[in-house]
Amino acid sequence: MEFEFILVQAAYAPHIALVQLNRPKELNALNLQLMLELKKALAQLDEQDEVRCIIITGNQQAFAAGADIKQMESKGPIDLLKIDQFETWDQIRKTKKPIIAAVSGFALGGGCELAMTCDMIIASETAKFGQPEIKIGIMPGAGGTQRLTRAVGKVNAMEMVLTGKFIGAEEAKNMGLVNRVVPEELYLDEAVKLAKEIALMSPIAIRLAKESVNKAFESGLQEGLFFERKNFYMTFASNDQKEGMSAFVEKRRPDFKGN
Predict the structure, then answer these.
(1) Which of 16, 112, 142, 150 is the most buried (most CB within 10 A)?
(2) What's the whole-model pTM score?
(3) Residue 24 has pLDDT above 80, yes or no
């Protein structure tokens, strides 16, 4: 897959794809073309059976320092409505494969929102998270007020959104925003390690489990429980379920095929 603003390795490791944001001079600012390329890459990777987990990363200096303000400055509300830039974000959310954000340096504004759209976040010790849109007279628009609140709670989200303050990696972990914090030189390796653990599991069960966890953020308890139960029953229609239970009884490692 050839793109201008992202680098894609569909076989970065067995069953693991790597997508790297690649606008280093702009600190990986998220312009419209980059987001469209990311949407296309994720849609293609989602259809590849060999890919079981996807990692999105930037570089050590920045995961993504925000949206491309120069591209947005002169736009009016009707322009933004016609561009419909958030449709790309919806595609990221709908990706069936698990996505891990490997974050080092700045993850601000749209960059923080992109990391939160992923399913898990591994952060380097240098990572900085924030929603500083308020400082330029706007507010988060790609899920920042919603996902951040669900991750860190109302009072922490309110302070971050209304003041534009940044938080470091350890504070983000303590708030529940990231999975773990590692030294800068290990953040991508740690993401790969987590992806390898996931890739050992049944792809069908992983997909249904991811859907069910996400449902908890989008519905009430009873609706979520009903959805979870339906997906639980669905796993028993797969060969992976037969293999997994047989392997447990036979005291061996299962060999999941994704069917």
Answers:
(1) 112
(2) 0.91
(3) yes
